[in-house]
Amino acid sequence: MTMNFNMCEVVRDYLDRHEWKYSYISEKNIIKCGVNIKSKLKSVQIFIDFKARGFVVIAVPTLSAGQDTMDEVMRYLTRANYGLLDGNFELDLNDGEIRYKAYVPCAGLNMLPDSIIEEALAVPPLMFQKFGDGLAAVALGFSDGETAYRKTQA
Predict the structure, then answer these.
(1) Which of the ends of the chain has fewer CB neighbours closer than 10 A, N or C?
(2) Which stretches of the chain drop beneath a pLDDT of 50?
(3) pLDDT averaged over the chain?
(4) Residue 144 to residues 81, 107, 135, 151, 152: CA-CA distances in angstroms?
(5) Which of 26, 50, 34, 31 lies closest to 128 in space, CA to CA?
């Protein structure tokens, strides 16, 4: 199924209308911007990666997991992922990069409503806002994954 619109143009139009500051990397067809969040993490970088049938919104904090905390971060993120509907946390076991990824399928759509774009852009930073303090505690070695996760549920 094909789309009757250009996803990237529609998302860029949305960002322009809402006065987001962003950069477009044309050779990779990616939009990059930053978002402030209410968490010890303070902010995340957002990458919008356009694919043939949809787009991926990825949020990446400046914090990463070190070799000494990698296992506990993995446990924390596994607990956080359980039951999530709109995306998931990922952990690169090679370099410790942590990110949240949400995919928006667009194949077969005739248009891309603002509400879909708004939710796609909101969910990844909100997940870091919800789980960011616990993630920071675990990644910095101040807490284990289970204890930090339980605090997010209190």
Answers:
(1) C
(2) none
(3) 94
(4) 16, 41, 10, 11, 13
(5) 34
For residue 31, which of 13, 46, 41 has the smallest C-alpha distance?
Answer: 46
Q: 137: burial class by Cβ within 10 Å (0-12, 13-18, 19+)? A: buried
Two structure tokens written together for 57: 């919104």
Give the H or E element holding residue 100.
strand 98-105
Residue 97 has what DSSP assignment?
B
Residue 7's contacts (CB-CB under 8 Å, 6 or more residues apart) are 50, 54, 55, 106, 112
Q: Look at the block and give the residue holding tokens 């950069």.
A: 23
Q: CA-CA distance, 55 to 102, in Å (whole number)?
A: 9
Residue 39 near residue 97 (C-beta atoms within 8 A): no
Q: Are 116 and 91 in contact (CB under 8 A)?
A: no
Number of Cβ atoms within 10 Å of the Cβ of 106: 20
